[in-house]
Each structure stands twice: as C-alpha cells, then as structure tokens.
Design goal:
With 719 residues, the protein is mainly beta. Among the domains are: 106 residues, Immunoglobulin-like (Sandwich); 231 residues, 7 Propeller (Methylamine Dehydrogenase, Chain H), CATH 2.130.10; 116 residues, Methylamine Dehydrogenase, Chain H (7 Propeller), CATH 2.130.10. It contains two helices and 66 strands.
Length: 719
C-alpha cells in the first residue's frame, strides 16, 4: 500500500504547512472581537508605543504610527479602572482606582507579558496620578497623599511634608520643579531642598475646589490649571515663588466641561464634553478642532509620531495628522464596551449587546452592523438566544423581543410575562424558556409566543441560574438549592443533589451521557445523566490549571459559565477559560489565555464552527481558534493519538486535499473523517492520492489508523 510522497510533493506539503502555520499563528491566542469602542481615561507614550487607560477595561497599546490595531494588555491587573499611566523609560506603570499600582515587567518563558502589583508601603489603593522622574523613581498621587518609590515600585514611602491637602489629582514637571494639584487646596511645588511641598497659588487658585487638571509647557515655562472657577495660566513657573494665574477661558463656550489639559510644546489642547479645542502658545485663543469627530466627550489627548490621538467616552480612539485636517476613528482591537449579552451560531453568526446597543455580524466578527430597529430597550439587553431562525433578546425594562431577520426589525414578544425585567433566555426543541428578575421561570412555544409559568416543584426561594437540555429532560441549576430536573412535558421539578456538596450552582451543561454542574466555589461536578443513576462527584480541581491566574490568586473554583462543544466540556471563571476532553479527569487551558482580562468575569461561552467565543463584562468579546486545542474524536479518548505526524494539504481546503503520511509508522488500514462533534463523515479503506469531499464550511478531523493499532489525527478546515 502506498504511504509516501515524492520529494517534490513533500516540498509542496512543507510549503503549504508553513503558510498554514504562519496564518494560524497570526490569529493564534484569544483576541478581541469587538464591537469596538469604549471609554478612555488617560494616555501616555514611550518611544514607539502609545498607551491608553480605560474606565473599566484596563490598558491598550499600539506601536504603529498608523494605529491600525490595538492590543489589550490586561493580564495581571486586579482592576481595569485605570486612572493614570506613566513610563519610566524602562517600564510602564498603571494607577488604578481601587487596587493600587501595577508595573508591566512580567514575562514568562514564552514571551507573554504581564503586570505585577507593586503596592508595598502604599497605604491608599485609590491612586489618582503618576509621575516618572527617572527609570526607578516615581511619584504616585492618591486620595490621601503622595508616595514615592526609588526602586521601581518595590517599595513606597509617604512624601507629604508640608502638604496640607492630601487629595492629589495631577502631577507636572518643568526642569527640576515638580508641581501638583489637589482637589480642594490648589497647587503645590516641591521646594529646592527636595523635602517639602510649598504652596504655589494666588487668589485664583488658593483653596479652590475641583482643582483637577494641570499641564506644563517646558518650552514656555508655563502651567495651565483647571478648577471650579475656570482655566488659568501662570508664567515663569520654574523661577518664581509667587505665581500669577490669569484666566484663559475666553473663546470657549460658557457651558463647556473641560476633562483634561495637554501641551505638546507648540500648542495647548483641551479635551472637553464638546470635543477638542486648541490654542497656540503665547496669547491664548481657543478654536474648535472637531472635524471628523462625532459629538462626543473627549477625555484625553496625546501627541504621537507627528500627530495627535484622542480618547473619547463610548466611541473609542481617534487620530489626526498635523497640520490638522480631520480626525479618523482608529478602534480596531479596542473592545472596551460594557457587554451584557452574546450569542453565536453556525459558521460565523455573532450577536452581541453592549452599552451602545445590539450589533450583529455574519463573518465571525470581522464586521458588525447595528441591529436595534424596534428594540425599544436596546441599551439594557440582558441576554440573547437563537431559536431556529429567530433571534430573541431579553431586556431589563421591556420584556422579550424577537427578530426574524437578524436585528433589522424587532417586535415585542411579552404575552404572559408577569414582569418585563428578564434576566436569561434558553431554547430547545421549538420551546423558549425565560428567567425573570424575580426568579420566575416561563416557557413558550417558539412559533406562537405565549409565556406560561414553569415553577411547580421549585422551592419558593429558588434562584435559577442556568439550563441545559438532554433527551426529554431539562437540567436546571440554582444558586443555593442545587440541581433540579424535569421532563419537557412533565408537571414538576425534582431535586437531584445526591453527592453535590456545593449547592451554589452557577452553570450547567451536557455532553454525551454525562451532565455537569459548575459551582460558585467548588469547581465542576459530574454525574451520569440517567435519573436513576444521578450521583454527583467532583471533577479534577479547576483551581490551578492556568498558572498566571493561580499566581494572581484568582479563584478557578468559582465557575461562571459552562458549555460543551468539539469533544470538550468548557468552564470559565474570572480571568480564565478551561476545557476537558476526559470528563473532567483533567482540565487544560481553553487556548492561550494571555489576552483575557484578569479583572473581569467571563460570563458566557459560545461557539461558531471553528472558534470559541467568550463574553466579558467590560471588554466585549474574545475569541480563539479551536485548532489551538488538541484534537478530540468521540470514542478515542483512551487511544494513543499522534497529531504531529499526519499532514493535510492544502489546509484550509475547498474540498479536495491530499495526505502526507511519510511520518506514519506501520501499515495504514483506514482513513476516517469526522465532523467537530465526532460523527463519521467518510471512511476510506485504501490510501488515496487525492480526496474529494462535499462538506459544509467548518472544522473536521482526519484520522488515520494503522494495522499496528496506532492512531494519527489532524484538523482540517473546509472553507
């Protein structure tokens, strides 16, 4: 039997494999999948990189002058609430509103970068501002004073001598002078001895509330200060001990709200609730700089590679070249929107609900369209689910909505609901299920919406959290009361908690003849699904399967969502996603985790044919190729499987492909093709030069068996 290829064919196979590897590698690991946009709070630059901090979603960076894409840098942060950024020339530092200060200096053996917490000696974790003086010396402002480190953050000491107002809001530096603003005490400067802070005010700034913003222009030796009485400029600040602050509010709209002040050495810039304003140095005369910018609040501006970049509220990031012509949106990879719901299905359909409404995509999140027509409560969608060709949305204030055309037209589907605050939706076998804010369960036929209660048998105080379906049964998880089961046509729920030592069930799923329950503190439990045999037992620990979340003390036993797909059972927790192919005997990382935020919940797990999707609270959707996980084929869990020796080319393929079996040892006895669920698509008892199949788009598994009992597998993509 032929089981080799000639040299030329081997070369072609190697070339195709290399191109495939490059293609897969460029999309490997969890990546942000939008929709893009969000709230920026602060910014800084260092060398060839610009950084933005966000209100809830951590830190993003871009190293391209074109700003063609943003990369999240979330791992290691215990909070996504970034209040200030500073670069020491060696490392990036981030201040947070509730977890202190972090330095981006971690790196594992694979080159993955992460943050380390540096709070030793920091008695107030509400950090408001940062100033890097040199590579190892930094100042941190907090709501209760100033701290200094001279060893790169290893330890901090208080530096409040002479400071009578401790709520620090901003730093600025000119030559050897360091200036600060305080919330209700005006401006201070470090004295010449470097031991005490000295009052640096006049009547326009002394003891004025909301002294929030400060910017220095070293080339003109000026400070610009914002307080509740207006915007003021002081000159010769590096040499005078008695500054004079002059109002520079002229030319600005009277109702403007200024968010930040910035100077690039040539011009002053204001970020405001009415866009961007600019004035040249010298005589201050403000002019709007808003062409191309939507009517949106701007929070921060920074110069970068000959242009400007600004961060907004909700709409993300914009850039412009200088001299100014117009702003251009640059949000690719910046998925910082608060996200409340997700549904994915088929080869590439995505629906996601955010603080800006509902979006849908038909190309695996490459492009989104808004989908809110008729959805009255589009800004408060709690869940999304697909029933056959209908998409349903659960809303906080307006009940359930349905669309037959992927969001082009929504209509209410609320008949029979006792309350219009709906938390979750589920679908199985032409029936919809809903859980409302009062923890009542409803069901309705898909084709004629008429909701009716489904409570019988549940304790009065039961709090349903999740549903899964198998055979003619509904599996229900509750928080505090464990697991309940009923048949779809039955009249009552029954508790099935034998062996379940943690009744706080957050999630449930089903695979083959096993049922699974995720708990809020005890990991995952498994049982046979036959009612007579239900007895729960704990799977292997989910606490330590991902090293970096373990190092951060994230609790992998607090399961937030579960799902089953592609031969794996999946379980998520804050900062991590796990997968098991052996019924919970072992748990592995569900793909490389180093882009998943470690400070936000992973609240839902969904799939398209070739990818896993997860939704996070404040960073939108993340996705990873299923090819990152080892191949699993139903019935082969105990077989010796080799995924390296077998090669397929071309891969992806339109349906015609060849096999490179030169690395397979032994006589080939059979070639079998499975779909992602493990169903046999084709069997071949002889090795062929070319295989031609007619399959739908998606991921498949090619398996080669030898007469000696060895099994070789490889994933194949049909495009």
């Amino acid at each position: 039997m032929k089981k080799y290829l000639n040299t030329n064919e081997n070369f072609k196979a190697a070339a195709v494999f290399f191109m495939l590897f490059v293609s897969i590698s460029s999309f490997a690991h969890f990546g942000s999948k939008g929709p893009f946009g969000g709230i920026i709070t602060c910014s800084t630059t260092a060398a060839d990189t610009v950084y933005f901090g966000t209100a809830e979603g951590g830190v993003y960076e871009s190293t391209s002058a074109a700003l063609v894409g943003w990369r999240p840098r979330p791992v290691g942060l215990k909070s996504g609430k970034i209040t200030a950024l500073a670069h020491s020339g060696k490392y990036l530092y981030a201040a947070t509103a509730d977890s202190g200060i972090f330095v981006f200096n971690g790196s594992d053996n694979s080159g993955n970068r992460y943050w380390n917490k540096v709070n030793n000696g920091l008695t107030n974790l509400n950090a408001t501002s940062l100033l890097a003086i040199n590579a190892t010396t930094l100042l941190a402002g907090t709501t209760n004073g100033i701290f200094i480190t001279t060893n790169g953050g290893t330890s901090w000491t208080a530096a409040n001598g002479g400071l009578h107002h401790l709520h620090v809001t901003q730093f600025a530096k000119i030559q050897n002078k360091i200036f600060i603003t305080t919330e209700d005490g005006g401006i201070y400067v470090f004295d010449d001895t470097g031991t005490n802070w000295v009052d640096f005010n006049d009547t326009n700034t002394d003891h004025i509330n909301e002294t929030d913003e400060l910017s220095a222009n070293a080339s003109t030796d000026e400070l610009m200060v914002l307080n509740e009485n207006g915007l003021f400029l002081a000159t010769a600040v590096s040499t005078t001990a008695t500054p004079v602050y002059t109002s520079v509010f002229a030319n600005l709209p009277s109702d403007i709200v200024i968010q930040s002040v910035y100077n690039d050495g040539t011009s002053w810039y204001l970020s405001t609730d009415q866009g961007v304003f600019v004035s040249s140095n010298g005589t201050i005369s403000w002019a709007a700089l808003n062409a191309g910018l939507p009517a949106v609040q701007v929070n921060t501006i920074v110069s970068f590679k000959g242009g400007l970049v600004c961060g907004t509220v909700d709409k993300g990031i914009y850039k412009t070249a200088l001299p100014f012509t117009a702003w251009t949106v640059m949000n690719v990879g910046f998925n910082n929107l608060r996200t409340t719901a997700m549904h994915t299905s088929g080869t590439g359909f995505i629906a996601v609900a955010t603080e800006n409404g509902v979006y849908v995509s038909n190309d695996i999140a490459a492009n989104y369209k808004t989908a809110n027509n008729g959805l009255v409560d589009s800004l408060h969608v709690n869940d999304l689910i697909m029933g056959e060709s209908f998409l349903f949305a659960a809303t906080q204030n307006d009940g359930v909505y349905v669309t037959p055309d992927s969001g082009k037209h929504w209509s209410a589907a609320t008949t029979g609901l006792a309350t219009l605050d709906i938390k979750k939706l589920f679908y199985s076998d032409n029936t919809l299920y809903a859980i409302d804010a009062d923890n009542a369960i409803y069901h309705s036929p898909l084709t004629s919406i008429n909701w009716s209660p489904l409570q019988t048998g549940l304790p009065v105080n039961a709090e349903p959290t999740a549903m899964a379906f198998y055979g003619n049964n509904i599996l229900l998880g509750t928080l505090g009361q464990g697991i309940f089961i009923r048949t779809t046509t039955g009249s009552s729920w029954s508790a099935y908690n034998s062996g379940l030592t943690d009744l706080n069930v957050t999630s449930v799923t089903v695979m083959a003849n096993k049922i699974y329950a995720g708990t809020d503190g005890s990991g995952v439990f498994i049982s046979d699904s036959a009612k007579a045999n239900i007895h729960w037992s704990a799977t292997a620990s989910t606490a330590n399967a991902i090293w970096h979340t373990t190092a951060m003390n994230l609790n992998g036993s607090k399961i937030q969502a579960m799902a089953a797909y592609g031969g794996y059972v999946w379980a998520s927790y804050k900062g991590g996603l796990l997968a098991s192919s052996d019924e919970g005997v072992t748990w592995i990382e569900g793909g490389n985790q180093f882009n998943l935020p470690s400070f936000t919940d992973v609240v839902k797990i969904n799939f398209v044919t070739t990818r896993v999707f997860v939704s996070t609270e404040n960073n939108g959707l993340y996705s990873n190729a299923l090819t990152e996980l080892p191949t699993v084929v139903t019935g082969l869990r105990n077989a010796s499987v080799n995924t390296d020796a077998l090669q397929i080319y071309p891969n992806p393929t339109a349906g015609s492909f060849a096999l490179n079996t030169s690395n397979i040892k032994g006589q080939i006895s059979q070639v079998t093709i499975f779909d992602h669920a493990g169903n046999v698509k084709n069997r071949f008892n002889t090795l062929q030069d070319l295989y031609t199949v007619d399959y739908t788009q998606g991921m498949y598994v090619v398996q080669v068996n030898t007469a000696e009992g060895a099994v070789y597998t490889q994933k194949m993509i049909i495009q």
